[in-house]
Amino acid sequence: MKWQGRRQSKNVVDRRRGGATGAVGGVGVVVMLLIGLALGVDVTPLLSELEGQGGTTQLSAADERAAEFVAVTLADTEEIWADILPDQAGQRYAEPALVLFSGATQSACGGASAATGPFYCPADKQIYLDTDFFVTMERQLGAGGDFAAAYVVAHEVAHSVQDQLGILGEANRVRAQASEVQSNAISVRIELQADCYSGIWARAASRTLGTVERGDLDEALNAARQIGDDTLQRNAGRSVQPHTFTHGTSDQRERWFDKGYQSGDMRQCDTFSVQRL
Questions:
Q1: Which of 104, 134, 225, 243 is the most buried (most CB within 10 A)?
Q2: pLDDT tens per residue across span 111-123
Q3: How far apart are CA 144 and CA 73, in angstroms?
């Protein structure tokens, strides 16, 4: 992916120099995340408790590079969706802010940590991302490469697009009134649509921005496969339990990303009206 020296978004909020990074970061965060995945335990409360115990953190060159990469990728999503959303949905695109943190921080949707992974919070319209997640993807999940990391950013931006279209709010309203199994099933459809929108972003990045290089698409598709619910459960030593899925299987995530990439059409990403995902 061609990203060095390109325009960076002004919508990045960097919280990494605060107390959270002094308490637990780097390898420690990765280890805690893997423990949580293996045991099915959310370790966010522990990370949040540690948040205030450290001092100011000195960021490494790799940390600074990751922040620059995220800012460039976010800028690309802004340029792409500023064209696509008015053209295909008749609506102006509102750029979300992206909060960088390390270890743990707070959002309007609750605690954010490496255990929760990157997420979009509709309550404050912001994306939360610990760049150590990129390390986890590469070293522990087998999903390395800069375009794989860009796919993660694009996926969370896609949730902002869903929010702006009213899709996310309506889906979450229905989820709140549904059983746990039904809620999980709706969550899968939300996530797969975000994967499809991410594919639309990748297509535009390739055809209009010219930033996609040979092998980049394979990196994104591999990332989609490696973070499927069935693969994560299997790799954590747990039995695969479809009724607990919240993001979709590896096959589904890869297929819907590719559908967005091949079509470039938001109408093809309607995961809520299809019977077979």
A1: 104
A2: 888 777 899 999 9
A3: 16
Rounded-to-integer distance, Cα 195 and Cα 136, Å: 20
Strands 104-107 and 97-101: unpaired
Count other Cβ atoms within 10 Å, centred on residue 246: 13
Question: pLDDT for 134-186, tens place per residue?
Answer: 888 888 888 888 889 999 999 999 999 999 999 999 999 999 999 999 999 99
Cβ 21 vs Cβ 76: under 8 Å: no
Q: Which residues of 173-200 are buried (b: 16+ CB within 10 A; e: fewer)?
A: eebeeeeeeebbbbbbbbbbbbbbbbbb
Q: Which of 113, 109, 110, 108 is nearest to 24 (CA)?
A: 113
Q: What is the C-alpha separation between 250 and 37, in angstroms, rounded?
A: 16
| Contacting residues for 269 by C-beta, under 8 A, at least 6 apart | 193, 196, 197, 200, 256, 259, 260
DSSP 8-state symbol, 205: I
Of the pLDDT bands very low, low, confident and very high (cuts 50, 70, 90), residue 18 is low
pLDDT at 201 over 90: yes
- In whole angstroms, what is the distance from residue 240 CA to residue 222 CA? 20
**Residue 95 pLDDT > 70:** yes
Helix (H) or strand (E) holding 135: helix 132-139
